[in-house]
Amino acid sequence: MEPKTVQLTRSSHTDLYVPDHEELAKVLRDGLSNNFADVTVEWTVSPNLQEPPFCLASEGLCGKPVIADVGGVPNLVPTPKLDKVYALGDVVGACGLEEALVLGAGAGSHVDIGVNSLMGNFLVSQGHAGQALHIRVAKRTTDCNFVTCIRAILASHYGERRPVGVGGVFLLAKGTAHIHVMPDFSPCPLNGDADVNRWLRFYDVNAPMVFVGVLFSHDPGLDLRIEHFHGYNVAGDRGGHYHHDVTPDEVVYEAYFSLAEKVFRLDPANGEDGQ
């Protein structure tokens, strides 16, 4: 008998700080210039994101954008909680929408494919075309990866009292990324990071790769995953969890992001409601 999907009755949410667009662009432009040799940050109408290389399910990221943080790593370790099966339609409803574009870091149901579906970190929006935060950077000059660099800049400028949530898509246009994938569920308990890292499978993959996910400048007390991006290529034969690139001299990233208005913490894996 297949397990039922989890009813998302244990949930909480809070408003996120949405900065002035031009101020945010300057903050990121100045900060990213300390980490990359070439930097462009601007607000612009995004291209049709249904087209290659992005190949998303909707043309844009606009329309009541929020972030949903579902389940969590404690559903996976030390042993998997196989009753934690989530339905994206329920996530959309919990975020107050009827139909939505859902993109981010998660996995297909273990009921169907036999491996992880115990967590997810998603940007949820109406998927309309419109203004997006466009970032293009090239030639990394520090050890900070693209995603963490953006998050650290936002954290430094806006502080703990003004948590900013960002979600969307970025293209690794040139270079090579270090990623991991999850194999079958571990037959032995995973007791700590060392066990987890032995269980995961790590790879380096060449551009072009498309990554989708979310990040927060700070956790406003909801036990959030602070950054999480998964990626794929158009051919569909490569994919995994983004860690960093390994080609600083040649790397090029291009991103289109939306600012989330709220974050919804759904079925928190720590057993608490986040409040």
Q: Please give the largest β-sheet.
A: 9 strands, antiparallel
Ranges with pLDDT <50 over ≥5 residues?
none
Structural class: alpha+beta
Report the count of strand segments. 14
**What does the oligomeric state look like here?**
single chain
Shape: globular
Helix fraction, binned, reads 10-25%
- Number of helical stretches of at least 4 residues: 5
- What strand line-up does the widest sheet have? 2-6-13-7-10-11-12-8-9
What is the straight-line distance between the termini? 35 Å
Evaluate the radius of gyration.
Answer: 18 Å
Average predicted local confidence, pLDDT = 92
Please indicate the percent range of residues in DSSP E strands (runs of 2 or more): 35-45%
Give the helices and strands as they follow along the chain.
EHEEHEHEEHEEHEEEEEE
Keywords:
alpha+beta; 5 helices; 5-stranded mixed sheet; 9-stranded antiparallel sheet; 14 strands
Explain what the structure shows.
This protein has 275 residues and is an alpha+beta fold. It contains five helices and 14 strands. The protein has a nine-stranded antiparallel sheet with strand order 2-6-13-7-10-11-12-8-9. The longest helix is centred in the middle third of the chain and has 13 residues, at 146-158. It starts with 10 loop residues before the first strand and ends in a 9-residue tail after the last strand. The model has no long low-confidence stretch (mean pLDDT 92).
